[in-house]
Amino acid sequence: MSLALQITDAGRLLIAAALDGVGPDVSLTDIAMGEGFGPVLQTQKLLRTPKIKVPISSAQTAPDGSHISLRAVVSSPAAVWVREVGIWAGDKLFAYYSAPTVDAPLYYLTASTEVVFAHDIYLESLDASSITIVVDPNASTLESLVRLHEQSTNPHGITEALASQGGKGVVLNVTDGPALDAAID
């Protein structure tokens, strides 16, 4: 998924106030998704067709301060064609992306499915140390499970992979199911 998030006018005002010492550091709190589409406007204050708003579940600042990596566990009781994404700083839309047309969705989120949304925000004129990420500790359960899965040496119960003659086929013996035959060209 490729997002060109634009910092909104409200986001720029928050940044300017933080840099001038007039306001607090910018606190990013939530990620929202919707089905709206169209041009990205710096004056954007809301998502066009909001469907989901979830707290940020984890964040990490790059060692050089050039960007922030955000993650959120996203789910919806109804299916959603995600075409727009917003990053919120409290009640202000900090950054926004929208697909240009209805037929260019980012992805389809099926009902009652949890996914981990991850995105890096690159900061051209701002040191990431002046941005605070408010993380909801209750939102990171799925992400922890995914991390354990990815670190497992045998996450899918595959016990053995044998290449047959000439590399034309692979037989996988799965501990929880029948053998799986696949042709590789």
Layout of SSEs?
Elements: E1 6-7, H1 9-20, E2 26-28, E3 30-34, E4 50-55, E5 58-61, E6 67-74, E7 80-82, E8 84-89, E9 92-98, E10 107-109, E11 115-122, E12 131-133, H2 141-151, E13 158-163, E14 169-174, E15 180-183
Structural class: mainly beta
Radius of gyration: 21 Å
Helical stretch tally? 2
* Biggest sheet architecture: 5 strands, antiparallel
Spatial shape: globular
Q: Mean of residue pLDDT? A: 76
Order of helices and strands: EHEEEEEEEEEEEHEEE
| Residue runs with pLDDT of under 50 for 5 or more positions | 158-185
Helix content range of the residues, please?
10-25%
Please report the distance between the alpha carbons of the first and last residues. Answer: 28 Å
Strand order across the largest sheet? 1-9-8-3-4
How many runs of DSSP E, i.e. beta strands?
Answer: 15
Strand residue content: 35-45%
Protein architecture, described:
- The structure is a single chain.
- This protein starts with 5 loop residues before the first strand and ends with a strand.
- With 185 residues, it is mainly beta.
- Helix content is 12%, strand content 40%.
- It is globular.
- The strands form 5 sheets. The chain has a 5-stranded antiparallel β-sheet.
- The protein is built from 2 helices and 15 strands.
Using brief descriptors, characterize the structure shown.
185 residues; mainly beta; three-stranded antiparallel beta sheet
Give the structure's gist in a few sentences:
The protein is mostly beta strands. It has helices at residues 9-20, 141-151, and strands spanning 6-7, 26-28, 30-34, 50-55, 58-61, 67-74, 80-82, 84-89, 92-98, 107-109, 115-122, 131-133, 158-163, 169-174, 180-183.
